[in-house]
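Record type: monomer structure entry
Structure origin: computed from sequence
Chain ID: A
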Amino acid sequence: MSIFSLLQKVEAVLRDNPSARNSDTELTAALWKTFHPSFIFINSGGAVCVRLSDLSRLPQEDQIARCRRKIQNDMLRHLPTDPAVAKARRINEQVWRDAMTAQGIVATRRVIRI
């Protein structure tokens, strides 16, 4: 799989699934479900699963996270919707607030009292 096509897939998931912008694990699961559904199955207990033997055939979380970082940090697109995640990823607060406003997401400031 070329990294360019993976970058396009990650961007599509980030665009269509805002909650995936805050978690690389959720992003990975959403990407697998969207672009690799043949590897996903529901076990007898009703849990959504991937066989261990199929993991090497799927894009890995670190590759997906690398693409997410390029999209969010370098291209400044599809930024996290959670202010704590944006802060932890060291995204400039004003850039983040402007992006949330442009997307129609209300950017609130959390006050933590100690």
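Annotation 1: Strands lie at 40-42, 48-50.
Annotation 2: The longest strand covers residues 40-42.
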